[in-house]
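Box S1 | Example of a co-folding query
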Amino acid sequence: MTNTERRAAEDKARRDDEAYDREERKSVQSHWSDKTLGDMNERDWRIFREDFSITTKGGRLPTPMRTWDEATMPEQILRAIQKVGYDKPSPIQMASIPIGLLKRDVIGIAETGSGKTCAFVVPMLAYIMELPKMTDEVAAAGPYALIMAPTRELAQQIEEETVKFAQYLDYRVTSVVGGQSIEDQGFKLRRGCEIVIGTPGRIIDVIERRYTVLQQCNYIVLDEADRMIDMGFEPQVVSVMESMSADNLKPMDEAEKIDGAGLEAGEQGTRYRMTYMFSATMPASVERLARKYLRNPAVVNIGSAGKTSDLIKQVVQWVDRNNKPKQLELVLSQFPDTQAIVFVNTKKAVDHVYNLCHKMGYSVGGIHGGKSQDQREDALKGFKAGEYDILVATDVAGRGIDVKDIDLVMNYEMPFVIENYTHRIGRTGRAGRQGTAVSFLTSDDSDIFYDLRELLTNSNNPIPPELARHEAAKVRHRVGVVKGKLHVRRSVKWFAILQVLLTPPTARALTRGAEFSLGAAVPTSGMWGSGSRCWSLGCKV
Ligand SMILES: Nc1ncnc2c1ncn2[C@@H]1O[C@H](COP(=O)(O)OP(=O)(O)OP(=O)(O)O)[C@@H](O)[C@H]1O
Ligand SMILES: [Mg+2]
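Box S1 (continued) | Returned holo structure for magnesium ion
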């Protein structure tokens, strides 16, 4: 480089520095929160995204909305949101609603209690507003939108959250879940409704019995998608997806072009199917489903998948198994002013802990999959209404369930997989409120040691010394030979949904590995002898 060239390069570098400083000074003077939408530059958006831990993937995407009125949504929906009382959008709502309004497919991952339901309900309402009014004639082709959830209680709760907004738009919302009269649900469906929410099994039932069809349903949400797959519901989910009109699926190779054109025009011309998947955790098992049914999806992450909310103080206590009842009493006595959920792993344990709490003088509700639907609903409704101090529950109440003002969640028994821990403790520390999760850990829980240690470290919560020095906390657990019968290896191709006869301890061992997804236990004790269960098991073998 000649001297002249060097001088020119130095001059240019100086000018660039000055320009950068000027820009920096300008930005320091006005933070993004002081700027109008039109004045927001790239740097402001970057800081904005950092402030709310928003990361997105999936090609060109619209900028987030900082406030509700920055999104281009119909006035009636804005008014509905106002009436519901949500003053500010939460980060997942800020990032994913503008994308949903452009009719892109979305995978949304955000921590528990962060308002994911509203994030998929709002674009759904905006979409329905563009469609013809649901007259009797239109109703014959079925609902406009469908939401699937893994448990009955969650489906009913999503129904409540949807009705909160939909009532102002005069839309009818129906939930279809097992354990309730299918005829009544069928009657409501035939009368016509814009939105259906249900568990996959019951949705298939109402389709098979011709109570409804999905001819014009082009908006589908899988809430807690990973859980539905874990529970072995993938075939049912797939079957529902297959009963929707395939004509409206975006052509795989043109999806990107169509979405790009939609972004330019501020909307999408042709009406394609929109598919949404939301959860606080997204293990790899969901990818297969996403690849098949989502088109050029936008992936919105708030924080990282599986991250626990910073609002939850996590206390893990190393206890002796025999000492748990005493320790339970002690912990509950330390939280006299709040309702609490106590999680266990089995129906039997629900009854056991229920009795313990009852003897301590608490009013208690119990919920597990073996109870009748009426009992399940009574327990949860009673707890939500404040009739019970304590709800003793299995994972049936572990996902999505939103009860206001719970300051304490306990794991009397540790779940077998870390995702369930994340969701269980997420029943507290919701919608900006602080909470505490106290979990009892014993040497029997070694399967979860590694993941738990990682999670506690990443969330800056204390690790009990017994866990920190335990060998099982140093290496990730892998399933190898299970009882010497079934050899299981990672990364071998998925090929079957097996019906495997297992004793519960073996089944429990199987849940340790991410490669397994245990389906709902089918109670077959009469047929197979006591103590046995026939598990529907999705696995790679
Ligand atoms: N923008 C908002 N402003 C105030 N409250 C909100 C807002 N959005 C949602 N909420 C409230 O926050 C609570 C949690 O919402 P929601 O159940 O949708 O969370 P989630 O992210 O789906 O949690 P989970 O992972 O447990 O399913 C609800 O009580 C809901 O009413
Ligand atoms: Mg939810």
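Residues 116-117, 223, 400 surround magnesium ion (ligand 2) (CB under 6 Å). Confidence is low (pLDDT under 50) at residues 479-541.
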